From TrEMBL:
Highest classification ranks of the organism: Bacteria, Bacillati, Actinomycetota, Actinomycetes, Streptosporangiales
Domain FAD-binding: residue ranges: 2-279
MF term (GO), any: FAD binding
InterPro entries: FAD-bd, FAD/NAD-bd_sf, Geranylgeranyl_reductase
Natural source organism: Planobispora longispora
Entry protein name: Oxidoreductase
A Pfam family assignment: FAD_binding_3
Amino acid sequence: MIDVLVAGGGPAGLATAIHAAAAGMEAVVVEPRPGPVDKACGEGLMPTGAAVLRSMGVEPDGWPLRGIRYLDGRHEAQAAFPGGRGLGVRRTALHAALSRRAAELGVRVVPGKVTEVRQGPDGVRAAGFRARWLVAADGLHSPVRAMLGLDLPGRGQRRYGLRQHYPVAPWTDFVEVHWAADGEAYVTPVAGDMVGVAVLTSRRGGYPERLAAFPSLLDRLSGPPVTRVRGAGPLRQRVRTRVAGRVLLVGDAAGYVDALTGEGVALALLSARSLVRCLRAGAPQAYETAWLRLSRRHRLLTGALLSARRHPAAARLIVPAAHRLPAVFAAAVRALA
């Protein structure tokens, strides 16, 4: 019997396996896709997330990030991260670096899917393995989560994310968030010759149509994109609990509010570390409380911005308010970082 079986080999799943292996536990990751795996992602890591990566011995190539800037075509507000830099990193580069570290620690990554889960008093059977614990890190629309009946009905606007990369030298070391009536565009430098542009919106449609809402940004994106469009959504995922017997949820599978504040990967890395600590302490049920504590600021800040976004008059005031109240904006960025 192995200690930890992980369903899903993205950043959350690999981070869980790395923490488990570093703690002396045997970890196996089941992942159907060959790496490195790409997906729709803003690709910006907050300073806390970058620090967790370093503590794991994972240092992917990327672009240092100094803070966050909001723009709406007329107003601008920016605030630097306190006490450290974030990191803009291609999703594929992050996955490759995590995979290398997992291999160094003896983590096995096997091709396959978890299609059935059978729990007993002492373990779990899934994907041909018997393990003490199963960790579901299988993404936003987690099959394991659905299999266990842990999904809650969605509520609020259904929002979607689309991302593509452009061969442009970064013009700033800030993550830029461009606001328009129907959504936001996030510009993240990821290399000396590339930026990622992710658009979040509640309107369905193609990437070029959505990007057209940001003319000042379009003027900076010379040349054709260098990657194909990737999408994700609906982003909002509500979950009953993150612990169900001997199955624990981590990353996007554990529940998701929105990508608006850009904390998804950092929260996944922190949650993976906390999950393994709970298992090592023999207190798996404590992970639910730990996850709620770790995600509290993210859920409150993101929820508040989404609430404002739903009302056009309030949405138009977000960037002007950040411009006129720089101390408040800096405090919000500090909370996120």
